[in-house]
Amino acid sequence: MAVHVEGQPFVSYAADAVVVATPTGSTAYSFSAGGPIVSPTVEALLVTPAAPHSAYNRGLVISARESVMLEILPASGRLAVEVDGVVAGYASPGERIAMQPRPAAARVVRLGHTTFYQRARRKLRLTDSAEIQAGWPDRAAEATAARPPAPPPPPGPDG
Prior knowledge:
By secondary structure, the protein is an alpha+beta fold. The protein has helices at about 25-30, 115-125, 140-145; strands at about 1-5, 10, 15-20, 45-50, 60-65, 70, 80-85, 85-90, 95-100. It has a domain at about 1-100: Tumour Suppressor Smad4, CATH 2.60.200.30. The chain has 3 helices and 9 strands, in the order E-E-E-H-E-E-E-E-E-E-H-H. The longest helix is centred in the first third of the chain and has 10 residues, at about 25-30.
């Protein structure tokens, strides 16, 4: 599949799928395909190859103000086009799918006072990752200063 941005060819992917998502959908579809976690305040489209099998396998973050078009390459077979997990249609080699996001299209009501990052951390179970201690870097500097100096190394064979 070839990705065109603003009418210009940019990159082609050999992959099982290509996920195009907004930051609101990034923690589900794009993230599961290896894409980044993106703040919902960023107005962008994420283009992420799923199970890529080509030399270039990185995703793209494209401004919501730029047009994006996917072109089904001749070597591809007929593809299912899914929207939020539901098959919306099919595309064949040579066909093009144009996308133009609507900036600020979604309005979300949140019950509670958690931030996007707190929810993402909880839902993605990021608490298992390397932890930064509370009070860092102040406590790290205090711990280093309070540590006694290391003893000198033993004399070598010459001396």
